[in-house]
Specification:
Largest sheet: 8 strands, mixed
Number of helices: 1
Domain Cupin type-2: 35-97
CATH class: Mainly Beta
CATH topology: Jelly Rolls
Protein name: Cupin
CATH superfamily: Jelly Rolls
Organism: Streptomyces hiroshimensis
Pfam families: Cupin_2
Number of strands: 10
Number of domains: 1
Radius of gyration: 14 Å
Helix content: under 10%
Structural class: mainly beta
Distance between the termini: 12 Å
């Protein structure tokens, strides 16, 4: 990891892949990841960790399946939201967005339980940022 400041705009400009996070830095045992997203991700669950989202650009929707039913939260640019562990959710960005996520290193982008992973979804634990 870099010991210099990392301009997020430059980092985001260094890749084009959608739903394919880049690890910007680490904080203790957590990855700080950025991603470009557009269209739908998949329904998935992280059994043992919460998932933090910060919208850097655009607008992100997150559908949630909760005990009281299904709902969708809308995150405009600058908004943050944490999906609680064990909550089935599906992020999507109809017009595209750039997001920052904070989660334990090694966390898969498709969670521990998920629908079938389509070809356009990169289901890794994040890629090293190459700027």
């Amino acid at each position: 990891m870099s010991n210099e400041p990392i301009p997020l705009g430059k980092a985001l400009a260094s890749f084009d892949a959608l739903w394919s996070p880049r690890i910007v830095t680490r904080v203790n045992d957590y990855d700080v990841r950025i991603a470009k997203v557009e269209g739908e991700h998949i329904w998935h669950v992280h059994d043992d960790t919460d998932e933090f989202f910060l919208v850097l650009d655009g607008e992100l929707h997150i559908s949630l399946r909760e005990p009281d039913g299904e709902r969708t939260v809308l995150l405009p640019q600058g908004a943050v939201f944490t999906v609680p562990r064990g909550t089935e959710h599906k992020p999507y960005a109809p017009s595209g967005a750039a997001i920052l996520m904070f989660e334990p290193a090694g966390t898969l982008t498709v969670g521990d339980r998920h629908d079938e992973v389509p070809d356009h979804v990169d289901s890794t634990a994040g890629h090293t940022l190459n700027t």
